[in-house]
Amino acid sequence: MMVHNSSSFVVGLLFFLILPTNIIGLWWAVGSPLNLDPNSICRRSRKLRGSGNKQHDICRREPEIVDEVVKGTRLAMKECQYQLRYHLWNCTMLGNSFVKILKQDTPETAFANAITASGVAFTVTQACSLGDLLQCGCAESTKTSEGPGPDGTWEWGGCGDNIEFGYTKSKEFMDTQIRRRSDVKTLITLHNNEAGRLTIKRFMRRECKCHGLSGSCTLETCWEKMPSFREAGTRLMDRYKGSVKVTGGNDGETLIPEDSTVKPPTELDLLYSVDSPDFCEPNPKTGSLGTEGRRCNSTSMGVGGCDILCCGRGYVEETVIYQVNCRCRFHWCCEVNCDNCTVQATINRCNGYGGL
């Protein structure tokens, strides 16, 4: 069911993502409510119990690492919202939806934990390569089985991404506060954190630079580089779609698929123990904000299509008018002049819950 309601808006930017710092945060560091202030994170880290409080040690000895952790969390939240933009729950930061989701053990919880662990490993590793951290630098080549070929055309060198350092700091900071109990939720959280980190570590790629006279490539120097974070997010999204529902094994230390016909999960699989709640309508207990007002695709029958995203309630069609730069011209040497053009587009938004 589609209801046509034509209205006009002047919008400078339709797809600008804003992550306000007062509602985002390191839930695994400071709990609820979410908070992304490094000083507050470190103050609260002192309250964590246990002599092996790596989080507090990092705050005390390596405060610059905490800054990278915060950057990694922000990067992860943006990627989470991008990957889930067409889904019933879209990794929203509105209200307390995110906190409620993280207190559960659903596929959405698994994805949020994994992508954050991945984001922290990524930004810490990147900071090493850029020289922003004194305690780390480029990765030392450990490749012994692959050296220069028989003709000596390439060898390991350059500035490789130090994924081992980023992996370690992500693990220390994210896993340290999780009590080493054998309950299913703890085991699942630790597994999904690790799956996120391995999405970076296991998919490093080789990059090379040519050397030689007159542009020839008589020798290549090669190093290992991380995948882009978009690539890591896409891999985790594939795992989210195929996430495995598990239960605890008799030994209290293993996780086994609830469905006996499903093969045991790998290190890269995302795990959960509770089915996703109904995100079609608002529910403060589960963190669902409903899908009223969400943009949908009226021609798609899949995820993001109005039939699925609007949960059968129908949608309203709106005409949107906004300004864009157009007919841009480059003037030597350093100036680009553009005209301001008006563009009209039709968008669809899901109806509310009372019907029209």
UniProtKB/TrEMBL annotation:
The keyword Lipoprotein applies. It holds the Pfam family wnt. Belongs to the Wnt family. SMART domains: WNT1 (SM00097). Its main location: secreted. One of its GO terms (biological process) is neuron differentiation. It comes from the Eukaryota. Ligand for members of the frizzled family of seven transmembrane receptors. Coiled coil: none annotated. GO terms for molecular function: cytokine activity; frizzled binding. It is found in: Secreted, Extracellular space, Extracellular matrix. This is Protein Wnt. The gene is LOC110984744. GO terms for cellular component: extracellular space. It comes from Acanthaster planci. Keywords: Developmental protein, Disulfide bond, Extracellular matrix, Glycoprotein, Lipoprotein, Secreted, Wnt signaling pathway.
